Amino acid sequence: MRYDLVIFDNDGVLVDSEPISNRLLAGYLTELGHPTSYEESLRDYMGSAMHRVHDIVLERTGRRLPEDFDDVFHGRVFAAFESELEPVPGAVGVLEKLAADGVAYCVASSGSHERIRVGHRKTGLDRFFGDGRIFSSQDVGKGKPAPDLFLYAAERMGVAPGRCVVVEDSPLGVEAAVAAGMDVYGFTAMTPASRLAGAGRLFGDMAELAALLAD
Fold first, then answer.
1. Are 167 and 187 a contacting pair, CB within 8 Å?
2. Which residues have a Cβ under 8 Å from the Cβ of 89 and sit 6 or more positions away?
């Protein structure tokens, strides 16, 4: 293994949540008078913390989203997770391999701690992630593309940034990892490879990751 720590993004990398959450986000924004298609939601908000949604809507329209926007949105997302959410195909195998080989890993997500844990419980991934392996943009107050979250995760895990590799599927996440001085593997299952051009390596099947990391 060329790295001392593998840092996973969560949504779209470990849990197949991006189609669910972006469908609901586009619908809710449209409902509030900010017409947004599913494709536009993926383009503008995939991989970002909730404050980015507020910032972009305010910048574009001059109108603030309702104070309860996050609570209502997350309520809809969590309800959908209960009936729809699955792990990303191949993710369980990768985590089992890393655990068996004694390779350190963690998750660093723009999502809240509650969102991460709800998704992990539903998909069974909670068995791989104790409290010491979960990091959220809530912990640093500044989400991707800032490098803060990845640097915080590396510090808490006791690994130098240059010995870390980040597995990401969003342009914002790739930008954040590069800014943190970490190698990045871009997961192209949902994102065109051209939008993850900053990643050092690209792959489209999570089942390939363990072999790529050992290469």
1. yes
2. 16, 205, 206, 207
pTM for the predicted model, two decimal places = 0.90
Length of the chain: 215
**103-124: string of b/e by CB count within 10 Å (b at 16+)?**
bbbbbbbbbbeebbbbbbebbe
Query: Angle of helix 148-157 relative to helix 171-179, nearest 10 degrees?
Result: 60
What whole-number percentage of the chain has pLDDT above 70? 100
* Predicted local confidence at residue 33, as pLDDT: 97
β-sheet with 201-203: strand ranges across = 134-136, 104-109, 5-8, 164-168, 183-187, 201-203
Of 202, 204, 178, nearest in space to 190 by CA: 204
Q: Which residue, 15, 25, 135, is CA-closest to 76?
A: 25
